[in-house]
Amino acid sequence: MNPELLRQLANETMPFGKYAGQPLSRLPIAYLVWMQNRGWPAPPLGPKLALMLEIKHNGLSYLLKPLVQTERRG
C-alpha cells in the first residue's frame, strides 16, 4: 500500500455534492456505498473513494487517524 495514498485519503476533501469540503476519511459508509452503486467518479477521485469504502467496510479507519494533518496556526 502506498503511504502517500493513505495520507491523501486522510487529508483530501470531497470536492462536490452533499459532503463537499469534508475529508474523504470522514465520509459516511452509506454515502460511499451510494456512490459505488451510481458509479464512481473519474480518476483520481473515484479510485480513492473506492479504497475508502474498502477501508471503512473492513473496520480499518483507525489507520488513517495518525495521518491527519492538523492546520498550523501562527
UniProtKB/TrEMBL annotation:
Matching InterPro entries: QSregVF_b (IPR024530)
Pfam (any one): QSregVF_b
Domain of life: Bacteria
Protein name (database record): DUF3820 family protein
Organism per entry: Ferrimonas gelatinilytica
